[in-house]
Write a structure and sequence with these properties.
The complex is a heterodimer of chains A (202) and B (279). With 202 residues, chain A is of the alpha/beta class. Chain A has a single domain, classed as Aldolase class I (TIM Barrel, Alpha-Beta Barrel), CATH 3.20.20.70. Chain A contains 7 helices and 8 strands. Among the domains of chain B are: 81 residues, no CATH class; 92 residues, TolA/TonB C-terminal domain. Classes of the chains: A alpha/beta (202), B alpha+beta (279).
Chain lengths: 202, 279
Amino acid sequence: MTTAKIFGISRHRLTTDGEGVTTLVAFSGCPLRCKYCLNKASWEPDKGRLYTPQMLFEEVKIDQLYFLATKGGITFGGGEPLLQVEFIKEFRELCGTQWQIVAETCLNVPFKNLQALDPILDGYIVDIKDMNPEIYKVYTGKDNALTISNLQWLLQHGDPNRIIVRVPHIPDFNTDEDVERSKKRLETMGVKHIDEFNYLIR
Amino acid sequence: MARGKQTCKILKEIRKQIAEENDIELVISECTYQGDCLGTCPKCEAEVRYLERELEKRQRLGKAAVVAGLSVGLLGASQVAMAQTPDTIPSRNDSIVDILDGYVVPKIQQSDVMLMGKIPMTSCYHVDPKRYRTVMDMFDFSGMRNLSVVGFDLESPDRIENVDTDDYVNVLINNSLTFYVPQFEGGESDLLEFISQNLGKNADGNAYGDMEVAFTVEPNGKLSHIDIIKGVNEQLDAQVAALFKFMEWKPAIWEQKSEDKFPFACQCVQKLHFPMITH
């Protein structure tokens, strides 16, 4: 039986993460260790409540009318949703094709995961951090080569309009010039939608 | 307009569009609640369930149910708009787990209660991860901050839904407030016993299904605004509603430093299952 730990479910998100009315489902477990991570509890794969795809579907389908009317659906975040391949595939079988399923991802996941999920995902919100490998490594503790190659593959295999890439200004880690360089490189790669924003440090 | 109220307004408009498009009679009354909310409440949820039932009826009669894409225009700020908007600042609204670090959990003593109330103060919850249930709370920290709806689950100490406020964690850690949800005298088992006994022979013995009764427990323990938001059948619904009119509950109370206890009005939803099994 496929299960996953989910540490949060947030309903009725209107503009935050995806089209229409969405419910954010946050998986536990993340490959990155970002210094300003808002959800540090998501780092641990064992934290959260254990769900089967059926349990999750039963819980979130109360908003089906809103999803259908607004072409919204589920945004899987986390943590890192692309680590939950079987769970999301089974969930898609339960919810059908009318719900939009979007992944809020760092893309720093094995390529086979992306390849397996791409046919059933409607969109991606990619948190790219910074395109500079050194900045990325200092901020996340990981290399970004996999992120970039996965993004490149996504851009070449499907409509680029299904991808939003978030480019943050990260205090003490990157500069405005770094952000500009990241944006330029992303545009060169074929990214159509860039969401530039500031991390708010509290 | 606070985020919750704005969400409520949009969701209400979506329901209205669905109803109009499908010739479903839906009277949407103005919400009188003054504080912020997370965009939904038992009354809003009941409207959604009603629409679902009406749409199902239409489909059974061979009529088309028009829903898909009906309200897309309402949400102009979609993915593309988001992508083009600079200076988007992530806030704690985007975070769910910040709150979990401190295991901030209210002490709740009753299962399956959906709670809404207005806490007229500027303090916060007490933490007790051992005892809590699924609950929705609506607060108004007037003049201080908006604190909206949180949900907790007994089985999972670190699951919180629908958290929507700023600086929430700090408030929770720095203050100590315990609040108690309304409770039938003797607890839930006594409530079920009370209902079962009083329905007695008049009850429809063949009735089967889940019922949800919405009501407000006033500070004096009397119940008001009783509404069967999910019914089983007309006769049983009326009988149960009549019973609730006679009940008295322990009101919701917030408590600070154990000596200050203040009852406040709370809106609740009690789930009942028929046939009732009582001990």
